[in-house]
Amino acid sequence: MLKKELEVKSPRAAYGETLVELGAQNKDVVVLDADLSCSTQTCKFQKAYPERFFNSGIAEQDMMCTAAGLATEGKIPFVSTFAMFATARCLDQIRNSICYPKLNVKIVATHGGITVGEDGASHQALEDVSYMRSLPDMTVIVPADYNEVKQVIKYASEIHGPVYVRLARTNLKTVFDESEYVFNPEKAVKIKEGSDVTLITNGETLTEVISCANMLQNDGIGAEVLHVPVVKPFFAAGDIIESVKKTGIAITVENHSIIGGLGSAVCEVLSENLPARVLRIGTPDCFGQSGEQRELMDFYGLTDEKLYKTINRYLGKK
Amino acid sequence: MNKFNATVRSDILKMIHNAKSGHPGGSLSCVEILSVLYNKILNIPVEWKNSPNFEKRDRFILSKGHASAALYSVLARKGFFPAEELMTFRKLGTRLQGHPSTRTKLEGIEVSTGSLGQGLSMAVGVAQALKLNNNPARVYALLGDGEMQEGSVWEALMSASHKMLDNLTIIIDKNNLQIDGGVDDVKSLEPLDKKLEAFGWHVSVVDGHNEEEIECALKNAAKSDKLCAIIANTIKGKGVSFMEDNAGWHGKAPNDDELKRALEELNA
After folding, report:
1. Has residue B180 got a pLDDT over 80?
2. Using the 8-state DSSP alphabet, how is residue B253 labeled?
3. How far is residue A273's CA from residue A269's CA, in Å, rounded to a whole number?
4. Could you give the angle at which helices B3-19 and B256-267 cross, rounded to 10 degrees?
5. CA dist A197 to A63, A282, A312, B212, Å?
6. Per residue in B190-227, pLDDT tens?
7. Fewest CB atoms less than 10 Å from the CB: which of A59, A193, B14, B74?
8. Is the pLDDT of residue A318 over 70?
9. Where are the alpha helices (DSSP H) in A219-288?
10. 3-class SS at A198?
11. For residue A214, what are the contacts with CB-CB under 8 A and spacing of at least 6?
12. Is A280 left (phi over 0), alpha (psi -120 to 50) or beta?
């Protein structure tokens, strides 16, 4: 399932390419963007199917409700902009005009998390998963690499109802082998077995967590690594409970605030079913800042080396 | 006042009185607009989804969702659903939610509205989809004047004119009042006609309680290859003397005595 050679590829490119495939298969697929079509890669769809592409200009709220109107008429709109503007700016529109009527709108937001980089806090969505997870009937997915993004976008087009997919700006190491990996929304993906601690992650922190788990292994700490792309509905709850029954400790890692995202979802499930220690690693209750992507990952403790130190400290090992 | 409109007005008052909440002012102001739309203009089968002509129906979007009582009454009186259901308005488990919802599958409701400023963008999406599908149906959206203080309305106005969605017509129920008082005092929209024109719309202004004027403007809009906005000058609370032109009746239910007096006026 896992690739041996980790090539670096753009999850956003995977999105754009998959949109073109979907556009060929289904004439009801339409795409909306808000003046960021090159960044989000919806420009690929625009080039292939200009009559089904709508640029809303810099008017995200209008875009969301226009998508709602298109979905009302049976279209399958994919709506894209940066995660900050897709969610925070349009929360009312998404709640009242998309989720409340349970419309078939797919919001695929790029530039989620701290790794937006130099643009700084105004553009770094650290709360988007939290917003989207709290909306009734919304499905929330945070895929980890190029190959998974392709399958997630297809899955989003196949299920009925609103979906939020969060993509990173960063080009990421491809973790999953395209010929072997099959995205299963109902399961956590067990990347590595272990019996000392359960590491739960998704999105672009997956490769960091895998690397960190290997470092822990060298010290004799067996970390079980679970990749949980579907944050809502939280289908993976059973897999997480099962793992923590074995290890007794859960540590969540995400490129998102520790409030309201994957870490919170894990806490909710464990506190109700299997009270256990949970350490949430993500950005603390704060705004981001400008910096290079790798510098920011390091500053907020999300690199493999920083994770290794934090986890060792938490486990009382070093 | 004709019999249909008097019935709708008494329904509105009885429903809001029975629910002990609701929005009489902005419901009463748009009765003639809705009456003309549903009696003279819109081609919508009352069998709703059971009709073979459902796909071809005109689409009506009540962007000022708080006028739900008026729309529910008109739909019931036209036969979309039983009039007895009107008295469930705003009650637990009702299909007649405080603001229109597609979740409750009430016949005649196209989209969910209530949070102001969103209906026109939805209408733009519907109009675009109809064009993509080569569906000749038309889209009508009714907005409140106070609602036009929402910035996203102007985003949608821009979108519609940029895409020249000539299958879309908007009507603005300009009753000049909002919850906190006069629209001109709270945040003026004037000159509204010139602003709409500057956004690429052809504007006609009518007396929003004169059915002939409304009908004429709507028919001209349907024939026109321009993007048409109709400003309907109305009186908030129209038809009930003590509610007319009084912002205090935006979102307040009449008590027993007030209902009695109001219904007497409507029968007179």
Report:
1. yes
2. -
3. 6
4. 180
5. 44, 18, 11, 76
6. 999 999 999 999 999 999 999 999 999 999 999 999 99
7. A193
8. no
9. 237-247, 262-273
10. strand
11. none
12. beta
What is the C-alpha separation between A289 and A44, in angstroms, rounded? Answer: 31
Tens-place pLDDT, residues A38-79: 999 999 999 999 999 999 999 999 999 999 999 999 999 999
Asked if A58 is an interface residue toward chain B (Cβ–Cβ < 8 A), one would say no
Helices B119-132 and A60-72, packing angle to 10 deg: 50
Between vectors from CA B184 to CA B180 and to CA B187, what angle results, nearest 5°?
70
Active site residue A60: yes
CB contact under 8 A, A96 and B121: no
Report the pLDDT averaged over residues B165-175. 98
Closest among A141, A133, A143 to A170, alpha carbons compared: A143
Residue type, B225: D
Residue A271 in contact with partner chain B when CB distance is under 8 A: no
Minimal-distance CA residue of chain A relative to B128: A70
CB within 8 Å: A72 and B125: yes
| Residues B207, B209, B214, B215, Cα dihedral to 10° | -150
Q: In chain A, what residues touch B127 (CB-CB under 8 Å)? A: 69
Catalytic residue among A17, A60, A127, A148: A60
Residue A181 backbone phi and psi in degrees, to 5: -75, 130
The answer to whether the Cβ–Cβ distance between A30 and B132 falls below 8 Å is yes
Q: How far is CA A294 from CA A117, A290, A299, B67, in A?
A: 9, 11, 9, 53
pLDDT in tens, A201-226: 999 999 999 999 999 999 999 999 99
- B172 close to B231: Cβ distance less than 8 angstroms: yes
Q: What is the dihedral of CA A185, A186, A190, A194, to 10 degrees?
A: 150
Looking at the whole model, is its pTM more than 0.95?
Answer: yes
The Cα of A115 is separated from the nearest Cα of chain B by a number of Å equal to: 30
Helix (H) or strand (E) holding B195: helix B192-198
Q: Which of B179, B175, B148 is nearest to B245 (CA)?
A: B175
